[in-house]
Every structure is written in structure tokens, then in C-alpha cells.
From TrEMBL:
Record-linked CDD domains: SCO
Annotated family: Belongs to the SCO1/2 family.
Superkingdom classification of source: Bacteria
Pfam families: SCO1-SenC
Membrane-traversing stretches: none
Name of protein: SCO family protein
PANTHER family referenced in this protein's UniProt entry, alphabetically: ELECTRON TRANSPORT PROTIN SCO1/SENC FAMILY MEMBER (PTHR12151), LINALOOL DEHYDRATASE_ISOMERASE DOMAIN-CONTAINING PROTEIN (PTHR12151:SF25)
Taxonomic source organism: Flavivirga spongiicola
Listed InterPro entries: SCO1/SenC, Thioredoxin-like_sf
């Protein structure tokens, strides 16, 4: 009887709405301490195919976002490997996308981003590599509650190994350290949950 109660409890817990575990995180706190929610917007970006990328490109999509640069000698290569794995895991779902923003527009031209994209062997509609000037990219990073800055040596940038998960209504639902296996597993579960909503 006790085992039956435990099994029923586990079943109830597993059927609970996961949305409680995925709060909406895209908000600002104003001077009065009030929370103001916002949606992720895009304007003024170009992708690796030299096409304009705007808010319409993320409508009805679940996507993960990150900031990187192609010459990155430190965290970007292992991040890229994890993102390739995630892209492959969701390759058959047209409502999923990865959006990567270069933080090095001086060196990451559209043609460089195109070559970098091709080397991943992931379809362009699944993984978008975005180019804009530094100010525009920094404003976008602000929407994702992150930042970046060049190191003194000029060869690297300070930037995060976290990715943001955004739902079909353009709200941020989670942040995940892509270099930690447990976080990647949680990210995959949360992507699946948002895709099923």
C-alpha cells in the first residue's frame, strides 16, 4: 500500500505543469520597484546568407541565443560543439532555432559567418549567425541580460558561456551554462517542454 502511494505521488508530480519551473525572465525593474515584462525584438541584423533578420524571424519559434566570435580561442569551440549537438537533437522540429550573435563585427564579416555556418553542417534555417554593429549587438545582449567586452590583448572578449532560452511569445524562460552537462540536459528538457506548449 505504501509503495502504491509513492507511485501515485510520483505520477502526480511528473504530470504537474512544467511552466512553474520555467518562469518568464524577460523583465526590468523600474525605479518604483515594479516589474515590467518585455518581448525579445530584432531590428538591424543580417544573417550569414546576407539576409535581413528581424522579429518576424523568431515568431512562433522556440530558440536559444548566445554571443560568440569566430576567432574565439577559449570558450566558443566547446560551446559550438554543444550547440551542434542540440541542433541535431531538434533537427526535425521547424519551430526550433539557434540564434548566435557575433560580438566581433570587425573580423566576422558576412562571408566569414557563412563559412563558419557551413562548417557546422547544420541547416541555415535551424542556426542563424547574426551580424550587426557593436552598439546594436550590445543593445541586443542587454535584452538577453548579458554583456561582453574586449580583453586588453585584443585577441579575446569577456563574454558568457550561458545561452538564453526563448519561447514562442519571445519571452526568456531560462539561462543555461552550455559548458555544464547537467545544464545542457536541463536545457534540452526545457526546449522539449516549450515546443510542446
Amino acid at each position: 500500500m505504501k509503495l502504491l502511494r509513492v507511485l501515485i505521488l510520483l505520477l502526480i508530480l511528473s504530470c504537474q505543469n512544467n511552466s512553474e519551473k520555467l518562469p518568464v525572465l524577460s523583465y526590468k525593474i523600474d525605479d518604483s520597484g515594479n516589474k515590467t515584462h518585455y518581448s525579445i525584438k530584432y531590428e538591424g541584423f543580417t544573417n550569414q546568407l546576407n539576409e535581413t533578420f528581424g522579429t518576424k524571424n523568431i515568431e512562433n519559434k522556440v530558440f536559444i541565443s548566445n554571443f560568440f566570435f569566430t576567432r574565439c580561442p577559449s570558450i566558443c569551440p566547446p560551446m559550438r560543439d554543444e550547440l551542434i549537438d542540440i541542433a541535431k537533437a531538434f533537427k526535425n522540429n521547424h519551430h526550433f532555432m539557434i540564434v548566435s550573435h557575433t560580438i566581433d563585427p570587425k573580423n566576422d564579416s558576412i562571408s566569414v559567418l557563412k563559412s563558419y555556418s557551413e562548417s557546422t553542417e547544420i541547416p541555415n534555417d535551424t542556426w542563424q549567425f547574426l551580424y550587426a554593429n557593436t552598439d546594436k549587438t550590445r543593445d541586443q545582449a542587454n535584452q538577453f541580460i548579458t554583456d561582453f567586452k574586449p580583453k586588453k590583448d585584443g585577441l579575446d572578449f569577456y563574454h558568457s558561456s550561458y545561452v538564453s532560452l526563448v519561447d514562442k511569445k519571445q519571452s526568456i524562460r531560462g539561462f543555461y551554462n552550455i559548458l555544464v552537462d547537467e545544464e545542457v540536459n536541463r536545457l534540452k528538457r526545457d526546449i522539449s517542454f516549450l515546443l510542446s506548449e
